[in-house]
Amino acid sequence: MSQAPEVQAPAVQAHVVQATAVQATAVQAPAVQAPAVHAPIVQVDGLTRDFKLGRSAGHAVLRAVDNVSFDIGLGETLGLVGESGSGKSTIGRMMIGLLPPSAGDIRLFGNSIAGKAGPGNLKAVRHRLQFVFQDPYSSLNPRMRVGDAVAEPIDIAGKLDSKARAERIAELFDMVGLPPSFASRFPHEFSGGQRQRIVIARALALNPDFVVCDEAVASLDVSMQAQIVNLLMDLQDKLGLSYLFIAHDLALVRAISQRVAVLYAGEVVEIGEKRALYARPRHPYTQALLQAVPRPEVGRPRQPPIKGELLSVLNKPAGCSLAPRCPHAAERCRVEKPRLREVEAGWQVACHFHETITPAVPGSSSL
Length: 367
What we know:
Elements: E1 40-52, E2 61-73, E3 77-81, H1 88-95, E4 103-108, E5 111-112, H2 118-125, E6 129-132, H3 146-157, H4 162-175, H5 192-203, E7 210-214, H6 222-239, E8 242-246, H7 250-256, E9 259-264, E10 267-273, H8 274-279, H9 284-291, H10 331-335, E11 341-344, E12 347-349, H11 354-357
Parallel strand pairs: 3-8, 3-9, 6-7, 7-8
Antiparallel strand pairs: 1-2, 1-4, 4-5, 9-10, 10-12, 11-12
């Protein structure tokens, strides 16, 4: 059976993200001011996750996430970036209770959803937390009509009768730019972009406040990525949603986020407002990530990127985790671990020498 024709989402005037032919993975940042950020609705404090390698007590412990702290305001998007294996997805899964943290706390509207009180509190607020997975092809049951898949959270909650259920399904399909008549079809009849719209509709079924988007557009082509990012921003404007947007594409993160946290080997090394961070990154790892993005300018000088592979979290050095790869590393970096400290209002960096290695020219990033 042929796939359903791709339906264009309604035009979003406030923020249009466009794919470019010059930079295949780049998406232009919207030329609008970031919305005002209110008091945090999500607070993460000292979040840590260990995985035991083997069953016996003597086996090694892999620390995938190490003492991570941040907050997310009402209607705000925090972008979380880093190399593969840096712990991004592990953080996302802990945020909604799919993985329990080994240490630290997660609070939603001031209520802890981790630790001893976590299970009870999490059950009470689970409908306010949702997750959008990376792969829209494996996120939907191939034997279930997509309307039933979207309504599954509603059915579990048992809140609506059959008429109200059908009306809610139609409303959700309309919200994500799909005709309500598509609800009777099966997943194989849709393209990847349409499937991701359906997955987003399911995530919205119970009117959540906070959504974790884990590489939510990574498996889509560039033009479809732009459409889904526009959809997410439009829904945020209409519903006041807060997002944790996990991605490796720095241009996408800049397009949708108000603030960005940079993760390396399970640790946050820099976090700040996106425009300042992209224009003048203060941590050498953030600088390397931005320098690694292809640029269209011919003959533009480039600083040498950080070399080598991502550090194994089984063999972390005593000092800075980046020291073995950092071109600026000194003896102090190898013996003393830098703490994440505020260098400007709302801007934190974990580097001993951030003042001397910061790019001198504001706007040095082409993103």
